[in-house]
Specification:
This protein is mainly α. It is about 75% helix and about 0% strand. The chain has helices at about 5-25, 30-35, 45-55, 60-85, 90-105, 110-130, 135-150, 160-165. Helix 5 runs antiparallel to helix 6 (about 110-130) and helix 6 packs antiparallel against helix 7 (about 135-150). The longest helix has 27 residues, at about 60-85. It is globular and about 45 Å long.
Length: about 170
């Protein structure tokens, strides 16, 4: 079970990493980024909508991506650590790897960061569903996958694990 103190610690670490990243790095723009920023109709609408809601402030988009990425990595690793009884060193290394990937991808103005974060959150809720059997965890996991698909339609495959776990 994740305590309120763990949540506060995860939020603090995520906020700290996000602020440091914001100060040290600029958002990386790629050829595909322009399509999301200018809302090209050929793109899925989830990511351009987020950029629009954040008033096209790419620094804040980057901050949000890194924050969500590091937070979801910590939640996921915490849940996996408890599920498989990993020692602290293993959990730390796994967390470090995922957070580094999250930061590296979070610097890009592309859909991968948010879809990665939402996918990890979905897996977190699915693990909780298996452990506790609460219907709300299935609902939260489904919402995370739904939003991830709105941002990056290629994640449609993720509905398979959702269905399999639901049947279980």
């Amino acid at each position: 079970m994740i305590s309120f103190n763990n949540i506060k610690r995860f939020l603090f670490i995520s906020l700290l990493i996000s602020i440091i990243s914001l100060l040290l790095f600029d958002p990386r723009i790629f050829p595909d980024s322009e399509g999301y920023i200018s809302y090209d109709p050929a793109r899925s609408f989830g990511y351009p909508l987020l950029i629009f809601l954040l008033n096209k402030n790419l620094k804040f988009v980057m901050f949000l991506q890194i924050f969500l990425s590091t937070f979801s990595c910590q939640l996921f690793v915490f849940k996996v650590k408890n599920l498989f009884n990993f020692n602290y060193l293993t959990a730390f290394v796994l967390s470090l790897i995922l957070v580094i990937i999250g930061i590296k991808v979070g610097l890009n103005i592309l859909t991968e960061s948010l879809s990665f974060s939402l996918y990890l959150l979905s897996l977190f809720f699915l693990i909780r569903l298996i452990e506790k059997g609460y219907f709300r965890d299935l609902l939260f996991s489904s919402l995370m996958i739904f939003f991830a698909i709105l941002i990056r339609p290629q994640l449609l495959f993720a509905t398979t694990h959702l269905l399999l776990i639901s049947i279980y």
